[in-house]
Each structure stands twice: as structure tokens, then as C-alpha cells.
Amino acid sequence: MMIIGMNLRINNWKYALKWIVGGILTIVFLTFLIRVISFENYYYDSKEGSERDIPSDALADQGEELIEIKPSESEVKEYTVPSDYPRYLSIERLGINNVRVLPMGVNPSGELATPNNIFDVGWYEGSGKPGHGGTLLIDGHNGGPNVYGVFKNLPSMVEGDSIVIERGDGVIFKYVVTENKTVSLEDSDAYMTTAAKSPEKGKESITLISCSGEWSQKQGTYLSRQFVRAVLAD
Question: Are 39 and 94 found together in one domain?
């Protein structure tokens, strides 16, 4: 009976030791997890509102894989669209000359889609067409993971600057800038109602849109949107 009793005490001791070791490992794991979460939050908070580091930041502007190679001269020259679609965009102020205007829709989240190539711009097919009296909505990237995009310097445009659109049939349309506005990310959706209208009643217009301002590490995007509005020259 004594032997049986000893065996029981030994088994109980082993059982207790197993629980003690397991408890210690659980505490160590939870402590490690808390430290990781705390460091991650500290890191993101420290980066919040800072300028995006283009050379080292691997995140794309909208979470998509971007192309950072300029289309060749032949690719640009051979690019065609229907006769009443915008084909090329030029902005002397920004050194932009005949960049391709790609017809675009909206992405799954309901936002205007943007071309994968940061040197192209996108024209929302649901907006106006050049020469038809509406308002064209055109967007473009301000940068990719490694280099700046076509609309990086959009905030520098001023009233009186020219925006030139060449249509698919070769007809040229010149628009004169009347407004360049920086809108916070939170207010940008509401401002789209204004952006989709002409700044001068009864005049055909164009609105250029891009990201701007400070980079948010938490949200994975810039904290502002740039809207340049222009009307068709007389």
C-alpha cells in the first residue's frame, strides 16, 4: 500500500509541474505579444503625419501594384481611343506633355479607379467628355513606391494655368485653372459633388484629382486630396 501511495504522490507532483511550466510559458508568450503590439502602435504613431519616404516605402498609394516605368514614345504615339474620348493630357506648368488618358471606372470600394502606371492619368467614363459641355474627372498618382508620379506637383498649379486635352479625333481643348484646393481625406468624398460640377455655371470644365499632404502609416494613404478645377477657354 505504501508503494501505491508513493506512486500517487509522484504522479501528482509531475501533474502539478506540468501545469506550472505551462503557466510560465503562457505568461511569457502573453508578455511577448503585448510588447510586440505596444511597439507596433508606437511605431505607427511615430510615423503618423510624416512625409512618406518614397525610396524605401514599399507600399503603393492605393494598395495596388504600380508600374513605375514611363511608356515609350512609340507606346504613347500608338495609343488610341474613340473619337470623342480624351486621348492626351498636357500641363505646361508641370512639364507634362501628351500623357495617356485611360478610360476608367470605379474600384470595388466605389472610389474612382486610377491607372496602374504612375505616368498615365485616368478619365472617369461616367463624367463629361471634351466638347460635350460637362465636367471631365481625371485622376492620377502622385507617386509609387520608388519614384514620383505624374501628379506629384499638382498642388503647385495656380489660377490661370492651362490644361490641354487632345481628343481621340485630334481636336484640342484648352482649360484655364480657376481653383486649386487641398481637401482633407475625411471631407474628400463630400467634396466630389463640387468637383463634378463646373466652377462657372454653363461652362464646360475639367477637374484633376490626386493624393497630397502627409502620409498616414496607419491608413496606408495620404491624408489629403488635391482638386484642380478649370473651365474651357473662350
Answer: no
